[in-house]
Amino acid sequence: xxxADKMLLEYKEGRRELNKRVRQLGHLDEDAExxxxxxxxxNEMAFVIEWLETxxxxxxxxxxxKGGAYHRRVLLDMEMFPCLDIEPEExxxxxxxxxxxxxxxxxxSVRERQxxxxxGAHGRTQEEIAxxxxxxxxxxxxxxxxxxKKIDNKIKVYDTQMTPKGALGCKGKLLI
Length: 176
Description:
The structure is a single chain. The chain is mainly alpha-helical. The protein has 2 domains: 3-66; 95-161, Arc Repressor Mutant, subunit A. The chain is built from 7 helices and no strands. α6 (126-133) crosses α7 (137-161).
């Protein structure tokens, strides 16, 4: 049994206990407030239980909560195409390129770096990043835009100082 199954059982047991407590309460006015609070907790637990059982946000009509999820996964996971015998060629970075990347990322604020790396390297959506960091989606969007602008400007500086092809080989373009 994995952790999600254990959590599901705990939620179900908790909901049973709350239902039992509601039944024990009488119909007096002093019990009304406690009943209201317990019923609210039961509803929240039922919501979580349904989400854990189905793997989807409850009460959504068309699965909008998964919008674009499959498209992103295709780009991140080549196992989705078993018929293609494509092995991406891994090109190791030189020490100079690694230093440039460190220099470029050090220009970013902590928030910009978090949002940029979660988006570009981990393929997370702005919604997922916002939820994980406890900020609004608009803040994530602005942080990524600021990060991209700072990185683009720094890469242009490196490209003009280095070889004709550029230090990162990207001719002033952001590869992520």
